[in-house]
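DM from R.C. (forwarded with permission)

"hey, sorry to bug you on a friday — could you get me a structure for this? deadline for the figure draft is monday and I only need the backbone to look sensible"
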Amino acid sequence: MKVSEPAEVSNSPATGPAAPIARGRNYLYAVVEASSPRSYPSIGIDGADVYTITEGRVAAVVSGLPNPKIRPQRANLAAHHAVLKCLMADTTPLPMTFGTIAASPDAIRRILIRNQHAFQEQFRRVAGKVEMGLRVAWEVPNIFEYLVNTHAELRLARDRLMGARHEFTQEEKIELGRMFDRLLNDDREEHTRQVRHVLAPVCVEFKANPCRNEQEVMNVACLVKRGAQEEFSAGVFASAKLFDNSFAFDYSGPWAPHNFVELELDLE
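My reply, with the result:
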């Protein structure tokens, strides 16, 4: 097995004096627990000042947005995540999906008023925690041949067909493909179960996301207490020891808890 560790990322906050609230469209990065204004100069999309719009005990972290739309370009995505990383230095933000835009500061205040209870519920869920990501992949030249070599059932089916003729019929290809998919998903479920068992003591919540391709074994998000990040790393290495060199482990974080925040906002 091979384990790739996350790169170090600075969490230094960049607070400054209160910034003037931009009229018109505002880009939303996150919602945080705060009752007094805060600003983060020149770290937003297009180098914009980032600041809070507060209502009660919660605040939206925003920047002005002169354009009606925002493209998912690398620089914009990087700025969005840089703001979240900055916020994580001293709080747990409820991250907004990239591209979330409100029509005006007043619209943002209405969102905060209408959703105070929902925001508080989400804060209780994720407060003092971070998200860690873990991806595991089969590091083999050919995943079909790998499963043929590790599953007698698939190997016998393949050999039986190849022994009869050199070319499969379409129906035979479909049947063999179904067997491959079933065994692939069975293996994924079993491997994920093994990893979850090892990481359970340090993960408050655990969410399995869809795999992106056939080579991927698992793509999981883990909600971890801030003080348990080293234990999480140790758990990843302990998990990896259960697998041979056909598997590569790659973990990342800490991130804002994207996979553990459930909000449906009417942005008007």
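R.C.: lifesaver. The longest strand covers residues 129-138.
me: no worries. Residues 7-13 have pLDDT under 50 and may be disordered.
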